[in-house]
Amino acid sequence: METIKLDISKTGIAVSAEMQAKAQTANALLESGKGAGNDFLGWVHLPSSISAAEIEAIEKQAAKLREKAEVIICIGIGGSYLGAKAVLEAMSDSFKFLHKKRTEPVVVFAGQNISEDYTHELLEAVKEYSIATIVISKSGTTTEPAIAFRLIKAEIEKIREQIQICNKQLNNLMSDYNNNVRPSFRATGKSMQQAFLNAAAMMNGTDVNMDEISDILKEYQQTLQEGNVSLQDSLVIAQELLDKVSKIADNIKRITGAETYEDILSAMAASK
Can you list the alpha helix ranges (DSSP code H) found in 77-115? Predict the structure, then answer.
């Protein structure tokens, strides 16, 4: 591995033998890890000691974040914040914030200050985007990053809770359909079933019937399990699907003048 060399021959600074000896002693102390504060020297041998497997794991995680998040919030303070910021600025287009078309997530920072205005404005700004966080903290107890982490974590958990509510409603609807409506449709005959579904579809402005809704739900749940969709996108999909199922179910009731599925059965029996 090549080392960095510093040429000061043209700086006008003379390096005495004493200065050189002190520098060599300090460097040897760093290399040996025997000096004071040696528990903070993991960075000394990191470039040469990191394995190919670790680099591959980092690259996979980075790809996962790029796929799922539009905004990545990097939480840290001091070196934990400035190190990431320096690398990002050094390796990126200095004016990418002016580009109208983005091909990668925007990285923003939190936890580097204790300003409530900054954190509030950040949370407001990312509401319409899928987000992910990278938390950098050696102790995990530094005040500024700890506050930012808790607030951003609470925002993510709020989205998860909304998804869980939607999923519960979807499952209740599908359970009701599968346990009550589907068997009754089968009992009354396929033509009657399709007639009601077609009428409901026309009123709802869609050609998706309840069987197809069931297939969509299964596909959506499988997508969630595979982890190929962000939290925000999951919530949007769930809400859209819930709205579609609810409208079709309500329209079937409206067509028959029924208030419950039991009333639907009576109306269908009377129309045979």
Answer: 79-91
